[in-house]
Amino acid sequence: MEFRTRIVIRKRNKRAYIAYAGLVIAASSLLLLFIPSLNDYIPYVFGSGIAVVVIGALIARGDVRNYGLSPDELVVSPEGINVGAVHYPLRLIRNMNFNVEAYNGLYVNDGAMVSGSKSDGMTNDLSFESGSGKVSVGFFLASQEHVQQLGLVFDAFYRARVPFIERNRGRQTYLFQHLSGVALEEFKRKYGYA
């Protein structure tokens, strides 16, 4: 049993820098508020910044994200973790932390946007320490079924008492659920932690 997925990497779409410059121009219009003699220019600076954002997004063909998928894979199993071609045996891994945010297409309303949005599945990450130092890697979750595959590996880890922490939005979870009180005690009893 294993969980296999693509690695999320930072990428630079050079054409997207124009859109980012537009954001800086639009934000700089706020600075003009502090210079009374330039207050008349605020709408022009803000408007030109928004125009540059739109032009930059068109030039970048709408791809203004600064991350994407690597051809390399992340493989997590009870035997160890493979990050690309590098294998880390489970017995040498310490402080393993999974941050599982969302899968591709999941509706997310985290308060940042009024109406929420659908996730692209690229905001998940894994970090751990090994003999070679600290390893951090982002990973892609394609669907709810993909999350269930990861859950099977988590279940195997709990049964084997492999030390790791799973989180969602900074809060610790247990098989993707926030547990407390009686539910947490029952979970611990089921996996022999009580």
Structural features, described:
The protein has 194 residues and is of the alpha+beta class. 29% of the residues lie in helices and 30% in strands. It is built from 4 helices and 11 strands; from the N terminus they run E-H-H-E-E-E-E-E-E-E-E-H-E-E-H. The strands form 2 sheets. A 9-stranded mixed beta sheet has the order 4-3-2-1-9-8-5-10-11. Helix 1 packs antiparallel against helix 2. The longest helix has 18 residues, at 42-59.
Write the layout of secondary structure elements.
Blueprint: E1 3-10, H1 17-28, H2 42-59, E2 67-77, E3 80-83, E4 86-89, E5 94-99, E6 107-108, E7 117-118, E8 124-130, E9 133-139, H3 144-159, E10 164-168, E11 171-173, H4 181-190
Parallel strand pairs: 5-10
Antiparallel strand pairs: 1-2, 1-9, 2-3, 3-4, 5-8, 6-7, 8-9, 10-11
Rg value:
22 Å
Low-confidence stretches: none
Q: How much strand content do the residues show?
A: 25-35%
Count of helical regions? 4
Described by the principal axes of the CA atoms, the overall outline is elongated
Helicity, as a percent range:
25-40%
Give the class from helix and strand content and strand pairing: alpha+beta
Strand order within the widest sheet? 4-3-2-1-9-8-5-10-11
Give the biggest beta sheet.
9 strands, mixed
Mean pLDDT: 85
Got a strand count? 11
Q: What is the distance, rounded to the nearest whole angstrom, between the alpha carbons of the first and last residues?
A: 26 Å
Order of helices and strands: EHHEEEEEEEEHEEH
